Amino acid sequence: MIDCFATPKRTVTAFAGAAVVLLGFLSQPTLAGDPFRTSNPRAIGDNTETAFELIFKDGDYKKAKDYLQKAESTEGNEPLVYALLASLSYLDAKSQSKPNFDSFKTYASKTRTTAEKLAATDSLRGNLYMAVGHFLEGAADFEQDGPVRAVSKLQKVFEYLDEAKKSDPNDPEFNLITGYMDLMLAVNLPFSDPAQAIQKLENYGYPKYLSYRGIAVGKRDLKKYDEALDYVNRALQLTPNNPEVLYLKAQILVRQDKDKEALDYFNQSLAKQTQLPNYSAAQITYERCKVQNSLDNGSRDCRAERNKVRAGNN
């Protein structure tokens, strides 16, 4: 694992941001409500699986929330339910003028405590989601109290990930989640090599639409734009209507100085903005506005447009 304690503030900033990407980016497996495995599935639950696919395959957070509320009452022994609810709560809080992260922290803690119970019967997933729970709690501490308290969570994250790995280092769920974590930390920390994280997502991560999406994000941040475009196109082949993947392609095209082509993908993404949390839709609106200004030599107030959407006035 990366020695994160040498640069705690920068590390925890990446740590907090990665929480959104992770739980904030195909085949269609239906075995036992398990979206991660095509063989030896876990009984994760149908409502949880549907919510997962609505968020990450379709980019429809609004419908997903309904299924997560059902899952909370019928599949409440599944830590993924609370990890996804934590992600939605985080995005809701970020949309507020005075963010309140109490709900986010509550769901983060439920992720951890539910995982502790699961570990008695499923060491891999129990330890994996104990790591995720500590990860999310660290992000909550970062938002509320700054980096000092959050840093203490990092050791726990790595400790439980190491325990999960002992059960099956090639497990697709383990590699998808840790691949995203490692990649987000690697592209934000000096002297870190993201190659191992990318290889993990490429070789073992599943579902593939999320693996390809994660690799595209990593390649984008590494400024390998041609490779990023290749992987986002692979993700789009599997999830052609996901507004967040359309947005990711728009971002990559902007970095390739293809503003006109990028604008089309921003527009396609925003055509589905009612599916997205206000915070996400507002950021897409802001970046689209900047591209439109560049193309038109315009002077639209992009911050005002962003803030209007963030407040729900879209």
From TrEMBL:
Q: Where is the signal peptide?
A: 1-32
Query: Which ranges does the record mark as transmembrane?
Result: none
UniProt keyword terms in alphabetical order: Repeat, Signal, TPR repeat
Q: Where are the TPR repeats?
A: 209-242
Can the keyword Repeat be found in this entry's annotation?
yes
Q: Source organism's superkingdom?
A: Bacteria
Q: Which PANTHER family match?
A: CELLULOSE SYNTHASE OPERON PROTEIN C, TPR REPEAT-CONTAINING PROTEIN MJ0263
Q: Can you name this protein?
A: Tetratricopeptide repeat protein
Native organism is Limnofasciculus baicalensis BBK-W-15
